[in-house]
Amino acid sequence: MKQEALEVLKNRRAIRAFKPDQITEEELNTVLEAGTFAPTGGGTQGVQIVAVQTPETVAAVDALNAQVLNKPEAHPYYGAPTIILVFETEACFTHELDGAAVCTNMLNAAYAAGLGSCWIHRCKQMFELPEGKALLKKWGLPETLTGVASIALGYAACEHPAAKPRKADYILKV
Ligand SMILES: Cc1cc2nc3c(=O)[nH]c(=O)nc-3n(C[C@H](O)[C@H](O)[C@H](O)COP(=O)(O)O)c2cc1C
Q1: Which residues of the chain have pLDDT under 70?
Q2: What is the CATH number of domain 23-154?
Q3: Which of 85, 117, 118, 153 best tests ligand 1's pocket when mutated (most atoms within 8 Å of CB)?
């Protein structure tokens, strides 16, 4: 069992092509729950996770990220049917580090559950824009939330990529 966990950590890869089919509720919940068990500074759990699945909201979030990218025609979430957004709340004194830990747990859980996922950047800038703040308001969340990271999630529509070789001096033992 421990070995399987290590294999997941080593074999998860960023997936950048998705089938349009939506993932199951059980698959989504597996990923989200793994996020909630990530370490957080002082155990504050000061992270807010938002799972986006309604097609019009997925499209709005995709367009918002493309806007930050300054490429309105782009689809930064690669057509994934689910987008997960990770925010730091005011309770989070170790800030984006907690959100990154939550995000990483969810990426690994996604792979363990047979799903494809990719960490997508620019969440901070997205929710600084008026359009991002309007989405937070619509979802009943404080407009003071700070975006940390986001995830494109779905069934992979590509071969599983190979990992790049690890750099020789990655680790120093002293
Ligand atoms: C902070 C961070 C931001 C990233 N942003 C993006 C992104 O905006 N778009 C994307 O396609 N991949 C993004 N990635 C995924 C990386 O490109 C990917 O993890 C890296 O190339 C290594 O590949 P692997 O995850 O398959 O090992 C991001 C990863 C991290 C950690």
Answers
A1: 1
A2: 3.40.109.10
A3: 118
